[in-house]
Amino acid sequence: MALIDLANPTRFLAFAERALPWLAGAAAAAFAAGLYLAWFVAPDDYQQGATVKIMFVHVPAAWLGMAAWALMSLAALGTLVWRHPLADVAARSAAPIGAAFTFLCLVTGALWGRPMWGAYWVWDARLTSMLVLFLMYLGLLALWRAVEDPARAGRLVAVLTLVGAINLPIIKFSVDWWNTLHQPASVFRLGGPTIDPSLLWPLMVMALAFTLLFAVVQLAAMRNEILRRRVRALRIMQAQAAQRA
Amino acid sequence: MTMALGPHAGFILAAYAVAALVVAGLLVWIVADHRLQRRLLAELEAQGVRRRSATREERPA
User: Fold this and answer.
1) Phi, psi of B50, rounded to the nearest 5 degrees
2) How far apart are CA A220 and CA B27, in angstroms?
3) Is the CB of residue A114 less than 8 Å away from at least one CB of chain B?
4) Which residue of chain B comes nearest to A97, CA vs CA?
5) CA A107 to centroid of chain Cα atoms
6) Coil, helix or strand at residue A49
7) DSSP track, A227-240
8) How many CB atoms lie within 10 A of CB B46?
9) Nearest CA distance, B10 vs chain A (angstrom)
10) Which residue has the higher pLDDT, A141 or A4?
């Protein structure tokens, strides 16, 4: 099956039904390996002690909170340029998942910050830009609910998503552009990671596990969104038939 | 083998508990939503409302 064939909703549903069990199995296996490495193999950090274990959920949650918005931005182009309904379905499905991961990033960050910095929250550039991302997710979800016609809501949301994408480089480079309490980039940086491999490998496996989980939830949510739109279309047909009778 | 969580055990356990809740919430949401949409579709089809493309899909070649 060519990738373009998946742009047909019926074919996409068939693909999702086949792919979901395999992806879910891979996610479960990756979580089992990642949690074992994080809890039983990774050493304590020489400065942060055992609180470094929070990194194994905090960092993947932050990456996926941003990745979901990046995915929505690509989907927004699909909605605005090609007006493809599946692009809007992808964006609509990714928004609550991205919001959930951003929320997880903020809460685990606060729980890590209190013992390390002495505060759950500071109005630091990285933390604030991440909070802005979470609020933008909530804004998009509210907009989708406020506009009744899904196609019109999709176009409005697509424009706002592309405008909001400016926040992604701000989040990424906030630790370089401003003097912040948050540590600078230590994995994706020029010159390679600064984290010791004994902590980096468990982090990478946990990131893989969270990414597979994201793929599972995204595929399943897209399948649900296609079904929701079919229900809406059938209800409209039913109402039109009743009006004609 | 590292299992001693030290003086900040409560923060570490709370972070993993929140992560578990968020993941469980996402999974419950997609399963419940899927069941709801399938049920609504089945109810509409039982009332004789069918998509035109669905009718074509079922027509013998």
Assistant:
1) -130, 150
2) 9
3) yes
4) B26
5) 15
6) strand
7) HHHHHHHHHHHHHH
8) 8
9) 9
10) A141
